[in-house]
Amino acid sequence: MSASLSKLLNPHTYQTGLWILTDDLQARNYWKDIFSSNLANIANLINDPLKREMFVDKMTEIIEAMSVDVYKTVHEVTVERESLLNRIGVPDPYKNIKDQENRKALACLQPHLEYLDSLSDQEQTFCICLSAVVKGNQFDLGSKVTADLWRKKQLNFNIDFKVNPSYKKYFSYFQQLKGCNVTVLVDNAGFDYLIGSVSFIRFLLNSGFSVTVAANNSPALNDVTYQEVIELNKKLDNIDQIWKKAQQDQRLKFISSGCKTPGINLKKISTQLNQAVNRSDLLILIGQGRAIETTLNAVLDINVFRIAKVKDYMVASYIEQPQLSDFICWTKPGEEFID
Prior knowledge:
Elements: E1 2-3, H1 25-43, H2 49-65, H3 74-87, H4 95-118, H5 122-136, H6 144-151, H7 168-176, E2 181-185, H8 191-206, E3 210-215, H9 226-239, H10 241-248, E4 252-256, E5 269-270, H11 271-279, E6 282-286, H12 288-293, E7 303-309, H13 313-318, E8 326-331
Parallel strand pairs: 2-3, 2-6, 3-4, 6-7
Antiparallel strand pairs: 1-5, 7-8
Helix pairs in contact: 1-2, 2-3, 4-8, 5-8, 9-10
């Protein structure tokens, strides 16, 4: 069942995109190129020749329709793409890649958590966990630049254990909300979720927060799904007692966001996500799609913490940051994003 986020204060002006493609020729042409590049990447993952041909033909039509003002936002095109993959019987072409990345990340998780537990400085632990989220978020195979790096085996997960001084102010924000309810929208499978999000969520649990984790209802690119999160939990429970006990104590819960794209339409979320956000004092949005592209113009009646690696040139230009830079932003209830 779909619902509109009740914390959304500007539902009449809210758009699921940074650009109106029907009005912005430069943005339209840029995103046509991006979708064309992703078309080839996805097609290469479809083993059935007939289904691969169907996908290429129909997706080419969708991309060309961007030139005749059929789609207003990038998000609308992603909705069509995921719908097409389901119609031709290939709902999750990235499944094998996600499984491989999950296995690699799980192998690194326990020593990473043990290192975090060895630290005595809570602020330092927070900063390292935040760094892990940003580093993990580069594993986005919907982005041309990071997908190219991944194919060349040049996309690596290396946490910088030096504390970034700019992260310290965010630690003070969390200290002020200590013990509150938090809803976290997670992003990519593999290192993004299992090292980045899991270690950050675990820090929150250790600090007295209660956390609801929301993941996609169905597959989109290499995003982790709700069902995959539940399956991974069985492994996480064996790795980490803190994670397991938080669930037993009802301080860690998992829900479906109701979404099936790399972004989110705040007017079409699951009832469970709406209820979770209503119970929360803080909403954490992870990933370029959810934290920037589809929600940056949303004004919410809740504290919002946005974390992403800025992969695309047009997105970087919009927020006036370099490509592949870190995007970390805190907005208070009722506050608009101001770069």
